[in-house]
Amino acid sequence: MATTRQASVEVDTTMRFVAPDFTTINVRASLRYDAEDPYAVHVMFHPGNPDAEEVSWSFARELLASGMVEPTGMGDVRVWPWTTARGEAIALALSSPDGNALFEVSRSQVARFLRRSYTLVPKGKEADSLDVDLAVTKLLAER
After folding, report:
1. Please, which residues have CB within 8 angstroms of residue 103's CB and are 6 or more apart in sequence?
2. Is 2 among the domain residues?
3. What's the pLDDT at 3?
4. In whole numbers, what is the pLDDT of the chain averaged over residues?
5. pTM of the model
6. What are phi and psi of 91, to 5 degrees?
7. Whose CB among 16, 52, 86, 121 lies 3.0–4.6 Å from 47's, allowing a Cys bridge?
8. Alpha-carbon torsion (25, 116, 96, 53), positive or negative
9. Is residue 3 assigned to a domain?
10. Could you report how far apart the first and last alpha carbons of the chain are, in Å?
11. Confidence (pLDDT) at 113
């Protein structure tokens, strides 16, 4: 009997948007990892308004993992360990031409998400899971 291997991990979470005065606002979000895109993680922000569009950011899984223990990243995405009154967290800073945003997310939740992603594609084995032909086909189809 054949078994089907899970191809993705998605974890719903609440991130806290950190305002310039350090007040926070809860934001519904999801962390997603897909074995077909083995180097990336995706963060989807779910709007409270049903008519608004979901916002998605993609960046390297290694950047998220490194940010668990030390400040990492430059440019559009930066991640670092952060201690808050609520406990250990990870800071996620996102920048775009439209503006900047700082979020905090539970460190333990990110750690669980990463562990689950490593069960799909172990750290250092991303190239083994990459289907180059499929990636090229997808790129060409987008044109």
Report:
1. 15, 16, 17, 18, 27, 29, 91, 92, 93, 94
2. no
3. 45
4. 87
5. 0.81
6. -90, 135
7. 52
8. negative
9. no
10. 40
11. 97
